[in-house]
TrEMBL record:
Source taxon at top rank: Bacteria
Gene3D superfamilies associated with the record: Rhodanese-like domain
Family matches, as InterPro entries: GlpE_sulfurtransferase, Rhodanese-like_dom, Rhodanese-like_dom_sf
Domain Rhodanese: 43-132
SMART domains cross-referenced by the UniProt entry: RHOD
Pfam families to which the protein is assigned, alphabetical: Rhodanese
The protein's name in its UniProt record: Rhodanese-like domain-containing protein
Length: 132
């Protein structure tokens, strides 16, 4: 009985350690509201806006000046490799699922200032901001 309990304790200990390690390995992705992103776009120079949706989704509109990197393409991360890691990036998609993934990849690649638009382009539109 003691041997069985030791195995359970050992298993639980390993599980907890692995969970803690995986939680630490994930970079923290800062999210911003559409109003804060718009304010930064209007007042700061060098801000880069990345739209990570598919080209077919962009046809219905995009945030003015946004660059497109479709993260569903094979080897999309190669496009991140040529970007300046010291600039400030605001990343968005339709809601914020894909943009969270893209921002996470960017942080893992060493980008310093990456922000995810909470609610994606839907939040941008709900604030009444224009699309191009």
């Amino acid at each position: 009985m003691i041997k069985c309990n030791l195995k359970r304790v050992g298993f639980l200990l390993i599980t907890v350690v692995l969970y803690c390690y995986s939680a630490k390995a994930q970079p923290v992705i800062e999210t911003v509201k559409a109003t804060d992103m718009k304010k930064a776009m209007d007042s700061e120079s060098g801000v880069v806006v990345l739209d990570v949706r598919r080209p077919t989704e962009i046809v219905v509109g995009r945030i003015p000046g946004a660059e497109n990197i479709d993260i569903r393409q094979d080897e999309f991360w190669l496009k991140f490799k040529v970007l300046n890691k010291d600039k400030k990036y605001y990343v968005y998609c339709n809601n914020d699922g894909r943009s969270t993934s893209a921002a996470r990849v960017m942080k893992q690649m060493g980008f310093k200032n990456v922000y995810n638009l909470r609610g994606g382009i839907a939040a941008w539109k709900s604030e009444g901001y224009l699309l191009e």
